[in-house]
Structures are given as structure tokens and as C-alpha cells.
Design brief:
The chain is 35% helix and 16% strand. By secondary structure, the protein is α/β, with parallel strands linked by helices. The chain has 2 domains: 252 residues, NAD(P)-binding Rossmann-like Domain (Rossmann fold, 3-Layer(aba) Sandwich); 106 residues, Rhodanese-like domain (Oxidized Rhodanese, domain 1), CATH 3.40.250.10.
């Protein structure tokens, strides 16, 4: 690997003493340490991963660290976000993390970006840095970070954690495949767990965060073999790791601009959600018990419908709807029946309802999806041989 950063000024005696155990590493030396001192690294997220990554980068000698996060410290963060303490509850996470860095090394420069990164502000912010580290907790930010890094020609170190599992990878278009080559499209928004819903083992944060920090050091200094074209999976329950190799997809069009990533990931904005009407799970259950006519349209994939579905529904996957297909003509006697769109939770069904409304259909979506319908006692059916559907395990910090 060619070092990403040119060496900075010669080390002062105090710095040589501070980094003495690092300087003696084979192939490292003072030149490598000077490169770290000149490096400028942007870290997205000051939560589970960010609060683990940033202290390691500061201790390693990264000269300038930028941290972007708009969240505040909560009590539920403290079991895993070890850079924050009880006294930090209610404070911006970036401020708390800045105090942690100052306690490690007051001479490290920490730049605070107390804002949520978007397609509008990230390009200008990224211009200040050599490398971007994504420790975010959502798919829109992951794709935003990847695309912004690709447009800037800069490497991206990314990681994710959930429950007992973690993943780490490096994306760099000029030197290998990117996050989009591994995940061309995001999972359905209603299948994505968060740490809030799925939980996370605290030690997973420090394990994956340390691996990500190691990738940063390797790229800056130009040593070792970065995780380019490989994604590392770690299972804390079995203490096993495995790798999956992947290559650039020749059919993947290069990124030319940043887009609306929440829309890309199927997450409707609050204003968009107000554009369509909702039917509650309790209301739908009452209609079915009263045997009132209602047309149900399931916009999930066939394997999801086989796993469980509301009896009597019509299957019209979101992909086919996006390609222009519309519901079939209503059967006799059902022309005036209300049309209710549903999915697993409701992000896809809300988007489908907006699409069909624009095409002239009068529809509503099932608020909370089939999960809410089951929760209020609604009956579902399942094909005998259908596998259990498992949600994506690559989500958050």
C-alpha cells in the first residue's frame, strides 16, 4: 500500500516517548508516526462505534480528528458508549467525546461538527479530511458516506454492529470495490433493526471500533493489507471471524452526484407521510370481523408473504410497483371496497400508497404493518415449507 498521507514535522522528544511502543513496531518507525500526526480523519457518529474509534485514533497519534454527530448522551447509551459518563447525560455526544480526547492528549486537534450529515453539507466538510470513517447507525448515512467518499476519491472505513455480530470493511473506488458493490441496494426499511430494538453486546463496540481504527492507521501509514474487497464478520458468541471477498461490479454505474438517501432507503419524510391516509391495525381487524369487504395488497417480496400474510391479500411487490405495474381490476362486488396496502411494518406500504395515489387510486396503508396487525390479535397464514424470515444484521451502533 502507498501511504495515504505525507509525513509531518519531525517528532519532539516528548512525542517520541509517548509513542515509543508504537515506534518500535517492525516497518513502522518515526516516519510512520509523522504521517499519523499529519493525517486528518473524519469520523461519522459519536455513539457505540465512534466513542470507541476516536480515543484509539487520538492515542495512536492522528493529528486532526473530526467528529460529526447531532445526538445527545442518554442513560441507555452508557453500557456501550464508554467515552461518555453519567455526568454527560444531556450533553451533545461530540462535546463529551472531545473531553475524552483532551484527557488522552490535549495536543490532538478535535473538530466538532454538531450536525447531521446530509448530501448538502458533507462534501464541503469532507474537503478538510484525508479519510472518512463511518460509525453511523443507519443505512441512509452509510450510502451517503460511501458516495461522498467515491466522489472525493478518498477511502472509507466502515463498520456495523448489532446484537452479537459486527462487520468491518474498507471502500476506495480507485483501489478496489466500494460499499455499493457489496450492498447494491439497501434492505427494506421495515426489516432493519436498530440497537434500540435488537440490542447490542457492549464489548462488540470496542472490538469492531478497534478493528476500524486499525484500518485507518494502515491506510494512513501504508502498511499491511487493508480490508479492500473483503468484509470481516465477527461473531462474539463463538469468538469466530470469517471473511467474504467481493469485487467491483462492472455493471455498477459510477457515482456522479449525491441524492436523497432517506428516499433511496425507503424512509419517508414526516411531510411525505402526511400525504397518504393510514388504516390502523385495530380498524382493519374490526372490518374483517364484521366481514366488511376490503382489498388487501401486500407489497413485500414473495418469500416474505410465504412466511406469513393476512388471508385474502393480493401480492404486488414494491419492485414491480416501481416498474409501473398497478393492482389488477377489482373482482366483482369489490369495486367500492377500500384498498389497504401493507408490508412488514409500514415504510414500503406508505411509499406504495403514495405511488398509487399519484396514479389515481384511492388507497390507505396499514399503520405498523403486519406486525401491528398480529399484535392486536389479527390472524395470519403461513406456508408449511416457508423459511423463517430473518431481518438484516447490518445496522447500527
Amino acid at each position: 500500500m502507498i501511504p495515504l498521507v505525507e509525513p509531518g514535522p519531525a517528532l519532539e522528544p516528548e512525542r517520541i516517548t509517548r509513542y515509543s511502543r508504537q515506534l518500535m513496531l517492525p516497518g513502522f518507525g518515526e516516519d510512520a508516526q509523522r504521517r499519523l500526526g499529519a493525517a486528518r480523519v473524519l469520523v461519522i457518529g459519536a455513539g457505540g462505534l465512534g466513542s470507541a474509534i476516536v480515543p484509539v485514533l487520538a492515542g495512536s497519534g492522528i493529528g486532526t480528528i473530526g467528529v460529526a454527530d447531532d445526538d445527545v448522551v442518554e442513560l441507555s447509551n452508557l453500557h456501550r458508549q464508554l467515552s461518555h459518563g453519567v455526568g454527560d447525560i444531556g450533553r451533545p455526544k461530540v462535546d463529551s467525546l472531545a473531553d475524552t480526547v483532551r484527557a488522552i492528549d490535549p495536543d490532538r486537534e478535535l473538530i466538532i461538527h454538531r450536525e447531521r450529515l446530509t448530501s448538502q453539507n458533507l462534501p464541503a466538510i469532507l474537503e478538510q479530511y484525508d479519510l472518512i470513517v463511518d460509525g453511523s447507525d443507519n443505512f441512509p448515512t452509510r450510502y451517503l458516506a460511501n458516495d461522498a467518499a467515491e466522489l472525493a476519491g478518498k477511502p472509507l472505513v466502515w463498520g456495523s454492529i448489532l446484537r452479537f455480530h459486527g462487520q468491518v470493511g474498507v471502500a476506495w473506488r480507485d483501489h478496489g470495490p466500494t460499499f455499493r458493490d457489496l450492498f447494491p441496494s439497501p434492505p427494506p426499511a421495515d426489516e432493519t433493526l436498530s440497537c434500540e430494538l435488537g440490542g447490542v453486546l457492549p464489548s462488540l463496540c470496542t472490538a469492531i471500533g478497534s478493528l476500524m481504527a486499525a484500518e485507518v492507521v494502515k491506510l494512513v501509514v501504508g502498511i499491511g493489507e487493508p480490508l479492500l474487497g473483503r468484509v470481516l464478520f465477527y461473531d462474539a458468541l463463538t469468538s469466530r471471524t470469517r471473511e467474504i471477498a467481493y469485487a467491483a461490479d462492472d455493471a455498477h454505474a459510477p457515482v456522479t452526484e449525491l441524492i436523497d438517501y432517506e428516499q433511496f432507503c425507503g424512509i419517508p419524510s414526516d411531510s411525505a407521510a402526511d400525504d397518504v391516509e393510514a388504516t390502523s391495525a385495530a380498524e382493519l381487524l374490526q372490518w374483517r370481523r364484521e366481514r366488511r369487504p376490503v382489498r388487501l395488497i401486500d407489497v413485500r417480496e414473495p418469500h416474505e408473504a410465504r412466511a406469513r400474510r393476512i388471508p385474502g391479500g393480493e401480492l404486488l411487490p414494491m419492485g414491480r410497483l416501481d416498474e409501473g405495474e398497478s393492482p389488477a381490476a377489482a373482482p366483482d362486488g369489490a369495486q367500492d371496497a377500500p384498498i389497504v396496502i401493507y408490508c412488514e411494518r409500514d415504510p414500503r406500504s406508505r411509499r406504495a400508497a403514495r405511488t398509487l395515489t399519484e396514479r389515481g387510486f384511492r388507497v390507505t396503508y396499514l399503520s405498523g404493518g403486519i406486525q401491528a396487525f398480529v399484535a392486536v390479535g389479527g390472524d395470519v397464514v403461513q406456508d408449511a415449507a416457508s423459511p423463517e424470515i430473518t431481518p438484516t444484521e447490518m445496522v447500527s451502533s
